[in-house]
Amino acid sequence: MATMASPVLLKPLAHSAFIAAAVMAALCALAGEPLLAACAATVGGIVVCSPTFRKRHGAAPWPGLRAGFFIILVLLVATAALTDRWFISYWVYGLPLLAYLVVPQRGAWIAILAVVAIALFMVYQASGIAQRHQIIGAFFLTLLLSLMLIFLLEFKRRQLMPLRRTDELTNAASQQHLTADLNKEIQRSEREGTTLSVIMLALKPSNDAEPAGADSRSILPQIGRYLHSHIRDFDAYYRVADLQFLIILPGITSPQASRQAEALRQGVQQLLTSHQLAMTLSTGAAGLNIGDDANSLQRSVTGALRRAQQHTGNDSQTFNGRNQEPKA
Q: What is the helix (H) or strand (E) element at residue 185, kind and residue range?
């Protein structure tokens, strides 16, 4: 119930925050305070680029835009500190928490250090002991509260992670449940005397030296929908790496899995071509052999996938348990 209530409550709150930021920006502009108006407008931009404001804003290019708006906000606050605009300096207090919410974790800690540096500069520039004590006390109290809230949010995220069944980006089942689910399917196959196969599908930039970028990740939701619509209702697919999926196929023999792997590869390849993404797409397939467990079956299908990637880069290979060598 909590996972369903959260988006319902946060979406109106995000819209209200954007309206408040827009109104504040307009009033400050009319009052002749362009710097304060720019800060409010930047916060409004951060809110608009968040997935809470609109669900699709969780994919590229919105995360990059959020980070860009945050950097602009830090620069505006730093400008306020340098120009002695003390009434804007109070924006510093909310920046540590905002950094954690809108930029990657490593970037957030860098941003927090930058905010601390700005606050120390403000203390140095302050006139009088009373003003310095006021700035130091208020800033470090809010910094401590922000860090405590960040800790609690991270603790809650890690506590709930094992309970999350699906990957938010692709709606594939999460990797944390793969080994347990695969062992259950193996036990069922052995108990009922049925076959079981797995397919591993992996995307890779055409240039090995080129890292996977935002464009390649932006296609992942569509790949997830494609896989969901082209497997049976009782099959399961998992996102096992950034650009890699594993599909469990109960009741499917190894040759059947090989044909399905190639069909999926061709379908997803057409999807990549339609989006003009220069990526190689390889698949590996493996059937359950006597003595296999979840780990050995994953090693078999990974070996088949690796062979496909080494062969041509756009290929399907099947693991043959009799000679321990993948074959086309």
A: helix 178-192
173-327 fold: Alpha-Beta Plaits (3.30.70)
The alpha helices in 193-242, defined as continuous H runs, are 214-218, 220-229
Q: Say which DSSP state 314 is in.
A: S
* Whether 211 contacts 218, CB under 8 Å: no
Q: Using omega within 30 degrees of 0 as the cis cutoff, is the peptide bond preceding 96 cis? A: no
**Residues 6 or more apart whose Cβ sits within 8 Å of residue 49:** 57, 62, 63, 65, 66, 69
Whether the model pTM is above 0.90:
no
Q: How many whole angstroms separate alpha carbon 132 and alpha carbon 91? A: 17
* Res 323: pLDDT: 39
Taking a C-beta distance cutoff of 8 angstroms, is the pair 65, 49 a contact? yes
**Closest to 224 (Cα-Cα) out of 276, 279, 288, 168:** 168
- Joined tokens for residue 68: 């860009």
CA distance linking residue 66 with residue 119, whole number of Å: 23
Question: Which has the closest alpha carbon to 73: 106, 118, 104, 32?
Answer: 118
Q: Which of 105, 43, 44, 51 is nearest to 73 (CA)?
A: 43
Lowest mean pLDDT among 127-141, 213-227, 250-264, 285-299: 127-141
- Side-chain-facing half-sphere of 85: CA atoms under 13 Å: 15
Distance CA 225, CA 229 (A): 6
DSSP-derived 3-state class of residue 250: strand
Instruction: Report the helix count and the strand count for the chain, using DSSP H and E.
Output: 11, 7
Closest CA to 297 of 129, 126, 203, 178: 178
Write out pLDDT tens, residues 83-121. 765 566 667 777 777 777 777 767 777 777 877 777 777
The answer to whether 205 and 278 are in contact (CB under 8 A) is yes
Neighbours of 195 (CB within 10 A): 15
Q: In this structure, what token pair is assigned to residue 21?
A: 């930021």
* Non-local CB neighbours of 133 within 8 Å, separated by 6+ positions: none
The CA angle 140-146-150, to the nearest 5 degrees, is 145
